[in-house]
Amino acid sequence: MLGPEKYGLVNFALAFTAFFVTICDYGFNLSATKEISINRENKYKISKIFSSVITIKLVLFFLSMLIFLLIVFLFKLFQENVLLYSVALLSVLGTAFFPLWFYQGIERMKYILIISVAVRTFTTILIFLLIKNENDFVVYAGLNTLTQILIGIMGLSFALWKFGINYSLPTIDQLKQQIKNGWSFFLSTIWISLYTTSNVFILGLFAPNYVVGYFAAADKIRIAFQGLFSSMSQSVFPYVNKLLSESYEKFISFNKILFKVNAIVGVIISVTIFLLAEPIVKIVLGNEYVSSVLVLKIIGWLPLIIIMSNVMGIQTMLPLNKQNAFSFILFLAAIINLSLSFILVPKFLEIGTSISVLLTEVFVTISFFIFLKRNKIRIL
Question: Which phi and psi angles does 223 have, rounded to 5°?
Fold first, then answer.
């Protein structure tokens, strides 16, 4: 209903706000998850961690608002659609509220599933009811924001009620400790954002909105397929940390099986996307998005590549406290992606973006593999 142009504009705004999401998350989805997983039997300790992380995330949200206002006043690009960007920014508040790291740490992901499906079903129905033409693009962005805020508030409220978490104003030392724990993970998430969510933003700097729409729409399809593994990855991370604390051999054995299963399913998904890209685009997006077919064929290989790198990086290197090497590889990936983007995107637009992100993810996966092999960490 929005068409490629307005859909591209909305996704450009969401890509812009994604930077603020990264700031608010501050790597807590990894650092706090790990800490809560280790202390899951100590409710007092969990409450202290919970209070500190939520406090920091809310402070970071207000800091993000100040940065946002500064950018809007300084750059004309954002002033033209200030209402759209303001509505999109409010979705970051939902991210700040939502304690994903808590549910991951205690391995109660079913509650996230229930909350997320209920809210998204409700807002999806509203999309069909309220979005009538391309002039409703701000309403569409508002529904996305409503989704994030509802999930955030419900997830936070349920955690406090169901699990008896007692919020208390944290001390300065407690805040400093959480900031210190999350720092290396925060850097890693920054580098990741520079070669993932930033692609739509960079494309929008060089291309018309409708071109952004072609790439963003194809990428949504890719993410939908890849989403089959995202929840599994979130669920497995606290488990492998717990497993490692019990036995290194069990940890390695489990990750070997995890890698094989993921690789097989990843091949099936990526080959399916590549072979059926054209009918998928026509059915899901419509004839206006014919330019998205080649984009989907290229980025359709990302699920396979990212699934393998996830097992080697997040599920293996991070539990083994190889954060520095992990972060350095992602830093190099960010540099490579930015370099390729500013070379390829101005000339090849959405195809250049697709090639850039594919090559970057290949580099990450190969780098993780080389690191594990050199350090004799045998999960293959």
Answer: -65, -35
